[in-house]
Write a structure and sequence with these properties.
The complex is a heterodimer of chains A (about 900) and B (about 290).
Chain A: E1 2-5, E2 8-11, H1 20-26, E3 45-48, E4 51-54, E5 67-69, H2 82-90, H3 99-106, H4 111-114, H5 117-120, H6 132-138, H7 162-167, E6 182-188, E7 194-200, H8 202-206, E8 210-214, E9 245-246, E10 252-258, H9 261-270, E11 272-277, H10 284-287, E12 306-314, H11 317-323, E13 326-333, E14 346-351, E15 357-361, H12 366-377, E16 384-387, H13 404-414, E17 418-421, H14 424-430, E18 436-445, E19 451-463, H15 469-476, H16 479-482, E20 489-497, H17 511-528, H18 533-540, H19 565-578, E21 590-602, E22 610-617, E23 623-627, H20 636-648, E24 655-659, H21 676-703, E25 711-713, E26 716-719, E27 722-725, H22 726-735, E28 741-747, E29 753-765, E30 771-781, H23 788-808, E31 839-842, H24 865-877, H25 888-895
Parallel strand pairs in A: 1-5, 6-17, 15-16, 19-20, 23-24, 30-31
Antiparallel strand pairs in A: 1-2, 3-4, 3-5, 6-10, 7-9, 7-11, 8-10, 12-20, 13-18, 14-15, 14-17, 18-19, 21-29, 22-23, 22-28, 25-26, 26-27, 29-30
Chain B: E1 8-10, E2 25-28, E3 44-47, E4 56-59, E5 62-66, H1 71-75, H2 87-93, H3 100-103, H4 108-114, H5 120-127, E6 131-135, E7 142-145, H6 146-149, E8 150-152, E9 155-156, E10 163-170, H7 171-174, E11 177-184, E12 191-199, E13 207-212, E14 219-223, H8 229-239, H9 253-271, H10 277-280
Classes of the chains: A alpha+beta (about 900), B alpha+beta (about 290).
């Protein structure tokens, strides 16, 4: 058959059942992405005879003799199409994985479609941006500012990889062609709890193309945790690479490696597995009962299925409730949700000619993954190289090692490169989720609004394995309580094993769940005593001079590097009072309500976290920066270049950056827990300052002057009227034996605090339960903004994710622990129609702890969104909705409509 | 996604070329559902593209849609002015969860043969009283009423290997007044309930109410004249017992039952007054979610 792809004609025979997406990618057209492979996300959009289609749904044979245009062919001769340019100007991407499909879709629009984005863009999902920047791009609104030497910090500079993203040239994990590649697929358990009696592999081995089958009998019998933290002891060693007991539907049973994905899949189907079904338990409260089946007996559990319990009390809540004039008590619960980073998990492992192992992967923590691989397979660290190129979103989901290990196992055994790419369904059934938590809250307050007691009891469902269970539980008992000054606080938390898919790290990390509960409860008690939601928060919220403490008296390394919570509340209050002109729809069936919530974040985790940087001045006068942290759409490479440029008086684009590579960069714990700025950014700042001193000292030595008279300015050093270009200085220095280089490390202590407040005004239809968000406002206290455009983008994205958690997302299971909706058309992350515009405001603060006055900002913005929605819904309806999400059918059920 | 179990594509130019039907065969229309999930029981796809059926033909008798008519072609169709129900074509296209890009591949027949409760082409065909022509293997063509075609969630009257050939929307139905209501758990999402009422243009005549998405299969209620609210409610409850609403992640049965009653009454009220010629040529402007065009 003849194909015409981006103007090039060639002949090829696709596999009979092959879709156009893989047919194009097999030919190196990597701008065509796989987000879902089921037609729901639009990341694979191409044009067929000028009409946009989802190439994952198009039979490849049908594209023969038709004109196929992909992102690579959108504009000729290396130029940018106007839509590509608009996306670049507006920086309408974060991880950029959806951008190629988004641009191919937008570039096909007529005027009517441009005017109706909710319909026209419903087939393009973005998990990062909240769609605001995408709307801006389509409407021709640009935000990127020029890169001026010495003014990089605080400027809205574009992503240095932006052009690669909008042209489809940016290479994500799977965007490489590897020779001699083998493909790995896993058979996943259909049972929630079972012992594997026998695995017959003969039929599988006979499938043409199958090379090897791996079962629990073939792996090192070494316990570990898939969760990645600097301190390996904070997660329980409760997992085997492959186990003879499966504890959730979807757990890996066996891996099949074959010449093609098709053969590997056929091999999985041909495996003959005999299971002994074991009793299963899905509810964490039931799992704590004495008669419940016990999942683990590995020595790390607190008691039975309780992996860990945490308790604490300051003051006496019993006394506090006696002093209270009003007491509110209610049980709140949050739903199990998935990260849905558009790039699924996946890794490629291979050995080089020297026997060194290389692992190209989609990870937020390549260095910890490196350590875990060495531990599991008994490898010398120097013989293993783990790296990322471009990562298509993380949100905590890639703070796990769940794809690298099997690829390495197979490569070590077979000697050939091995690739494993998760399907979207596997993301739901075989990756991790947010911890479902149920929180009982009891609050006491005096008539004047003073909180006299806060008591919570949290039960967290960690699923079949305990990664992140202890840390998220601790976080759930931490900052949401710390945010309020109260003499008497008590918390009891339990993280419990069940036969559910394991939970893991997720943006907001435990604090989201309890923030929801407490912020709802604060509104409830305010109503009991007849107080305004702003007033009760102002009366009780933590302020400088207060102890930053939740329920433990231990000394803490958290301090007020800055404080802007008061500004956040003022900003939200004013914005809501000013309104935005949008009125509730006509009709008495629409009810309107306004709600707010606040959130507090410790900037960085209580566990250890460290990062190192290396910088060099290069002979061409440019700078090289190596930093271990991962860029996954969080914008760290952009802000790191800005931090470095700030210290060096340079333009950001004078700095070449390499990141997240165990060979090429210093160690970094990982990009999670909001550390990209406060730890890795700190390391960059320290390194850049050291290199600056190195350069100025050499300039002084070279000229026989004092270093203090010299300063860096753009591409030279300057003292009065004297200027030496960096190129000349480097040449002179090198000749004299000087080395222009620096290395520094950063460690996270002390930690500062950040704050967010969110306000929502919404209308709810009393008959259909439909919610329309009329106004959404957010205020963030994140210190100095290294890159205001990027900061706003992170907040837009976190807020959109918050709306998804509040309104649309929920992983639903049948009675046997099988997920009912593991596809994006049935598990609904917000599409553009679901996300309102949010006005974002920033408190005017400058942090004394964070680098260049900045604080953490990637996570916390999600936390106040769901409770603000809940509080608005309660105001509108007079009914408290304590369980997420607020879908129209649940609203209907609670309002008890009369048909 | 790749359908790795598929080992052969047949591309007949006439359906008669497929004489023997066996397990593992599947007709391939747009492919937008087939390629969206693994099809482990399918090894051969029989491509309908080369049959070259004309997508749509309008005549005095009505609108004749080939099963292979793309959704995009249907969306782009403009009927004669007397077909005052023609705006329903677009309303139903816009009721897809899928984007307009999918419409460039997906077909009207494919959606009907998928027979999902929320299939909007089913809503359209049933509400406009379509007749479907089926081509069994080795037997003469047969006609079925659209309302009888879908028998349950993902189930229909098609025999093994039987092909849906076309969908005839009669001019009489296309010339009726209509009212349309739809709701979804998310904005522009999959329908939890999609109800359409029609009534003859003159404003007397029978009242036809079609309930889809809320029930596993379409339910149509026919009244000689517009019933009272009470009679309508009672008729719905008799035809659709409370425990027979469709239960899935796109809405609870109780919610769908509630929406059905709520929308049915709105539709009844909208179509009860006699027609006013100036107004009747405009599509109804529903006030509810998913209906914002």
């Amino acid at each position: 058959m003849n194909y015409i792809v981006n103007g090039k004609t060639f002949s090829a025979e696709p596999q009979p059942g092959q879709c156009l997406r893989t047919f194009l990618r097999d030919r190196g057209v990597f701008g065509v992405k796989k987000g879902c492979d089921a037609g729901d996300c639009g990341a694979c959009t191409v044009w067929l005879d000028g009409k946009p289609v989802h190439s994952c749904l198009i039979p490849a044979f049908r594209a023969a003799d038709r004109k196929v245009t992909t992102i690579e062919g959108l504009a000729p001769n290396g130029k940018l199409h106007p839509v590509q340019q608009a996306f670049l100007d507006a920086q309408a991407f974060q991880c950029g994985f959806c951008s190629a499909g988004m641009i191919m879709t937008v570039a096909s629009f007529n005027d009517g479609q441009r005017a109706d984005l909710p319909h026209a863009l419903k087939g393009n999902l973005c998990r990062c941006t909240g769609y605001r920047a995408i709307r801006d791009a389509i409407h021709g609104i640009g935000a990127a500012e020029p890169d001026v030497a010495g003014e990089a910090c605080g400027a809205s500079l574009g992503n240095p990889f932006g052009e690669g993203i909008v042209t489809g040239r940016a290479r994500y994990t799977m965007d490489v062609a590897v020779e001699q590649l083998l493909h790995l697929k896993v058979l996943r358990s259909p049972h929630a709890h079972a012992r594997i009696v026998r695995i017959g592999r003969d039929a599988a081995m006979k499938v043409p193309g199958v090379v090897e089958v791996f079962t629990w009998e073939d792996v090192p019998r070494r316990l570990y945790s898939t969760a990645t933290h600097e301190d390996h002891l904070v997660d329980p060693d409760d997992s085997y690479i492959l186990d003879n007991v499966v504890r959730f539907v979807g757990q890996r049973v066996a891996a099949v490696v074959a010449e093609t994905e098709a053969a590997a899949e056929a091999g999985c189907r041909a495996l003959d597995v005999e299971y002994e079904i074991l009793p299963a338990v899905f509810d964490p409260v039931a799992a704590m009962e004495p008669e419940a089946p016990v999942l683990h007996q590995k020595g790390g559990e607190a008691k039975g299925n309780i992996y860990v319990d945490i308790h604490g009390e300051v003051g006496s809540v019993a006394q506090g409730f006696r002093e209270a004039d009003a007491v509110h008590e209610m049980t709140y619960s949050t739903s199990r949700v998935q990260h849905v980073h558009l790039e699924t998990h996946g890794s490629i492992a291979w050995k080089d000619d020297n026997g060194r192992l290389h692992v190209r992967t989609s990870s937020q923590a390549p260095f910890i993954t490196h350590q875990k691989l060495c531990h599991l397979f008994g490898l010398f660290p120097r013989n293993v190289h783990v790296f990322t190129e471009r990562v298509g979103g993380g949100f905590g989901g890639k703070q796990e090692m769940i794809s690298e290990d099997l690829c390495v196992l197979a490569t070590l055994k077979l000697g050939r490169p091995v690739k494993w790419e998760f399907t979207r369904e596997e993301q739901f059934i075989g990756a991790t989720t947010r911890h479902q938590m149920t929180t009982h809250v009891k609050l006491g307050a005096k008539r004047d609004g003073t909180l006299t007691a806060i008591e919570i009891r949290v039960v967290s469902n960690t699923g079949a394995y305990g990664g992140h269970a202890g840390e998220t539980l601790a976080a759930s008992l931490g900052s949401p309580l710390t945010a309020y000054r109260c003499a008497n606080k008590k918390a009891d938390g339990y993280a419990v094993y069940t036969n559910m898919v394991p939970a893991g790290g997720f943006r907001g990390y435990g604090a989201s769940q309890t923030t929801f509960a407490i912020e709802c409860a604060i509104d409830e008690i305010a109503q009991l005593i007849g107080m305004d939601p702003f007033a009760i928060r102002r009366k009780n919220m933590v302020r400088p001079g207060d102890w930053i403490e939740s329920v433990w008296k231990d000394p803490s390394d958290v301090g007020f590097g800055s404080y802007g919570l008061d500004q956040c509340l003022d900003l939200v209050e004013k914005a809501l009072a000013d309104g935005n002109g949008s009125r509730k729809p006509d009709g008495s069936e629409w009810a309107e309500g306004t709600g707010i919530a606040l959130a507090m974040l410790d900037c960085g985790p209580p566990t250890e976290h460290r990062s190192g940087g290396v910088m060099l001045l290069l002979p061409n006068g440019r700078y090289h920066l190596a930093i271990g942290s991962t860029e996954m759409g969080n914008g760290s490479v952009t802000s790191h270049r800005q931090i470095a440029a700030c210290h060096l008086g340079a333009r950001a684009d004078q700095i070449d950056i390499i990141n997240a590579d165990t060979d090429l960069t210093p160690y970094d714990t990982g990009t999670f827990a909001s550390t990209g700025t406060v730890v890795a950014g700190q390391a960059v700042g320290l390194t850049a300052a050291a290199l600056r001193d190195n350069i100025l000292e050499y300039a002084a030595r070279h000229t026989g002057t004092e270093p203090s008279v010299w300063r860096l300015e753009h591409d030279g050093v300057v003292s009065g009227n004297n200027r030496i270009s960096l190129v000349d200085l480097h040449a002179a220095g090198t000749k004299a034996g000087h080395r222009f280089e620096a290395k520094r490390k950063a460690y996270l202590s002390p930690r500062t605090v950040a704050f967010n407040a969110h306000g929502v005004r919404l209308a709810v239809h009393r008959m259909t339960g439909e919610i329309r968000v009329l106004q959404s406002v957010h205020a963030a206290d994140i210190g100095r903004l290294i890159n205001p455009m990027q900061c706003r983008g992170q907040i837009d994205g976190a807020v959109a994710m918050g709306f998804g958690w509040a309104l649309t997302e929920n992983m639903v299971y049948d009675g046997l622990g099988k997920m009912v909706n593991p596809a994006l058309r049935n598990y609904r992350i917000p599409a553009i129609a679901d996300v309102p515009h949010t006005d974002v405001f920033f408190a005017d603060t400058y942090d004394t702890i964070g680098p260049l006055g900045a604080k953490s900002q990637g996570e916390c913005a999600i936390n106040p969104v769901a409770p603000a929605v809940a509080n608005a819904l309660a105001k509108a309806t007079g009914v408290r909705f304590p369980n997420l999400p607020f879908t129209p059918d649940r609203i209907f059920a609670k309002l008890a409509f009369q048909p | 996604m790749n359908l790795n179990t598929v080992t052969e594509i047949k591309r007949p130019t006439s359906a008669d070329e497929i004489r023997q039907w066996r397990d593992g065969y599947a007709w391939l229309a747009g492919g937008t559902w087939l390629f969206s999930e693994p099809q482990q029981d399918t090894d051969t796809l029989i491509d309908l593209d080369r049959l070259d059926w004309p997508a749509l033909k309008a005549s005095a008798a009505g609108l004749d849609l080939a099963a292979t008519c793309r959704i995009a072609d249907l969306y782009g169709f403009a009927g004669p002015p007397e077909w005052i129900a023609a705006p329903l074509l677009r309303e139903c296209c816009n009721s897809f969860l899928a984007s307009f890009k999918i419409w460039n591949a997906a077909t009207v027949g494919g959606n009907i043969c998928m027979s999902l409760p929320a299939g909007p082409m089913i809503s359209l065909a049933v509400a406009l009283e379509a007749t479907l022509t089926l081509w069994p293997r080795g037997a003469p063509p047969r006609d079925v009423k659209a309302v009888d075609f879908v028998t349950g969630n993902h189930a229909n009257v098609l025999q093994r290997g039987e092909l849906l050939r076309n969908i005839q929307l009669p001019a009489s139905a296309l010339s009726k007044r209509f009212a349309f209501r739809r709701a979804s758990l998310t904005h522009l999402g999959r329908s939890a309930a999609l109800l359409i009422g029609t009534r003859s243009a003159r404003g007397d005549g029978e009242f036809l109410l079609t309930v889809t998405a809320a029930t596993p299969r379409p339910v149509q209620l026919r009244f000689e004249r517009v019933p009272s609210a009470k009679d309508l409610r009672q008729a719905i409850d008799e035809r659709i017992p409370a425990d027979s609403y469709f239960d899935d992640v796109h809405g609870t049965p109780a919610y769908k039952r509630h929406l059905t009653g709520h929308f049915a009454e709105q539709i009844r009220a909208e179509l009860a007054p006699p027609a006013q010629p100036a107004k009747s040529t405009k599509p109804a402007k529903p006030a509810l979610s998913g209906a914002r065009i």
